[in-house]
Amino acid sequence: MLIGFLGTIPFATSSRSVRTFDEYQRSSSARWSKHDLVNQKPVLEFLGPDTEKISFKMLLRADLGVNPANELERLRRLRDRGTVLPLMIGFKSIGSNFWVIESLDYTVKHWTRFGQLYSVEVTVTLQEYVDGVVRMLG
């Protein structure tokens, strides 16, 4: 069953493999500029919304039908190339823009007796990618 996808990485479950995520978090904030004034409190100026961030954990296990080393390498390539990715969950686009992989943090849970990755927990942090051209006035 297809749950969604990040670019070309499917989030899916079947009788042969499980590649899903948990601990999904989404955060957003506003951008403010602080103007200092002499002998007065500073004045805040609203600049607009900031880009959003999403993070989630993936448990990549060989006994669940995925190759943890290959999956990590795939995620690293997407991060290192700055690949802009759609994020879909439940056939619904998440956000109005695409996403980039900002960071990957992983913990090896188990190794095989031959020193290969058997089970890895990966935290994927995405940042919203806004495709826009800055226009200078004047």
Backbone shape:
elongated
Q: Provide the helix percentage.
A: under 10%
Strand order of the largest sheet: 3-2-1-8-9
Separation of termini? 54 Å
**CATH class descriptor name:** Mainly Beta
> In the CATH scheme, what's the topology name?
Elongation Factor Tu (Ef-tu), domain 3
Taken in chain order, the helices and strands follow as EEEEEEEHEEEE
Total strands: the figure is 11
Offer a concise description of the structure.
The chain is mostly beta strands and 138 residues long.
Question: Would you mind describing this structure in some detail?
Answer:
The chain is mainly β and 138 residues long. The chain has a single domain, classed as Elongation Factor Tu (Ef-tu), domain 3, CATH 2.40.30. The chain is 9% helix and 52% strand. The chain contains 1 helix and 11 strands; from the N terminus they run βββββββαββββ. The strands form 3 sheets. The protein has a 5-stranded antiparallel beta sheet, with no helix packed on it. A 4-stranded antiparallel beta sheet has the order 4-7-11-10, with helices on one face. Strands 5-6 form a two-stranded antiparallel ribbon. The protein is elongated and about 70 Å long.
